[in-house]
Structure formats: structure tokens, C-alpha cells
Amino acid sequence: MVSGGAGVSGPTGSGPRTGAGPGIGSVTGGSGHGTAAPGRGPAVQARSWLARPRAARLVGAACALAGVALLVIGLITLRGGPGQPPGAVGPTASSPATPSGGPTPNRTPTPRPTTTSSTGPPVVPSRTASRPAPAPRAPLIVLNNSTQPGLADQAKARFEAAGWPVVLVGNFAGRIPTTTVYYTPGDAAQQLAANTLATRFPSIHRVLPRYAGLPPTPAGLVVVLTRDWNP
Fold first, then answer.
1. Using one digit for the tens of pLDDT, what is the confidence trace for 40-88?
2. Within 13 A of 119's CA, how many CA atoms are on the CB side?
3. For the chain, how far is it from start to end, CA to CA, in angstroms?
């Protein structure tokens, strides 16, 4: 329907078309310009998106690329990296893999500290320490108080063979009942030597202190031999 001037009321035909699709409503006005209907088509929406600011479009594109990159990294991580089958675990630096079938490296045994005994080696007693000290020996004066000649010389040979020095050989005119050795009274060393001599020669039956009837010199033990002396 056209009002006021030369107007057009739709295409000629049986009447105005109605239905789906973009349609143009009635146009009013003398100039013939029409007003679009309220609904917008796909071409109008594309033009409205392109009309947005360029910076917003760049930010959206960058976010999309970042999402794709994160998706690719996640897939690579799950598959174990390039060149490895899924689930494979590479060797770590702390535990180097030993080739199968190869020789096992020798392990050096850890040396153990040796313990030393605090006690020293057993002390072996010295043989020289166990030996008794040698008995003191005094010079001898040998006197014959028997009727047997040469008895004093025979006794001298026996005494010297045993290590006893003889400084004088002679005869004794007194009467001595048995073979006796005399030592100087108060001289402990001579007394010990007289006992030692009597022990070494059993024919000496007595050990007595020296008395005045015996020759005073030289110093030493006086052995008076009687007939019971057995060389």
C-alpha cells in the first residue's frame, strides 16, 4: 500500500509475499527510501565482528595460539617425549645403567682397622737370672795334722782343681780330732766361704772360728787335715 505520491507496494503479482527469509517491509514516504526490518542476517553479523577494534582481535588470536601450544606440550609430556614409547623412563644421572651381560665392576673391600694387643710379648725369664750367684771363695792355708806324708800337697791339688786358691801348704803340730776348716771370727764372708768349702768336700767335717793356736798369717781359711781326709 502506497500513500502520498508515487509509491511502490511490493512486487506485482497476486499480493504481498510472506514467509521465511529476509524480507523488506512496506516503504512509505515520497522519496521511495525504505526502512529495514528489525532482524539481522549472517552478513550483518560478520560485518559487525570485523568492525571490532584490531587490538581485541589480536588478543583473542594470541590466546587461541597459547591454548594450542599448551595442548601440544601436554600431549608430548604424557607420551614421554619425542623418540620414546609411551610410559618409557629415561636413565637418571644418579644411577648410571650397567650394560646387560657386561662384567661387574670389582668392589674394593673396605680395610678394617687392626687391633693391637695392649700387652707386650711374653717375658721369657733369663737363664742367667735363674742361676744362683757364685759362692764367695777365700784363699786357703792347708796344714797336714797326720802322719801321712804329702797329704797337704794332695789336698792342695784337689782344692785348686775346684777353683779354690791355695796360698800356703805346711804341717800342724797340735792335736785336731777331725779334718776342720777355720774362718776369721766376725767375718761373715769367710764364714760363708768355709761352709761352701765344707759342702763341696764332705771330708771336711767341721766349720769353726779361727783360734789363737793357728798361724795368724796369711789371711784366709785354714784347713787342718787329719787321717780321716779322703782325697
1. 555 555 555 555 567 677 777 888 888 888 887 877 877 765 555 555 5
2. 3
3. 193
> Between 3.90.380.10, 3.60.21.10, 3.30.70.2390, 3.40.1110.10, what CATH number should domain 140-225 receive?
3.30.70.2390
- The pLDDT tens digits for 181-190 are 999 999 999 9
SS3 content of the chain, % helix, strand, coil (to 5): 25, 10, 60
The CA-based dihedral angle spanning residues 6, 12, 16, 18, taken in that order and rounded to the nearest 10 degrees: -130
Specify the pTM.
0.44
Cα separation, 228 vs 222, whole angstroms: 17
Structural domain spans, the chain:
53-79, 140-225
Q: Are 162 and 155 in contact (CB under 8 A)?
A: no
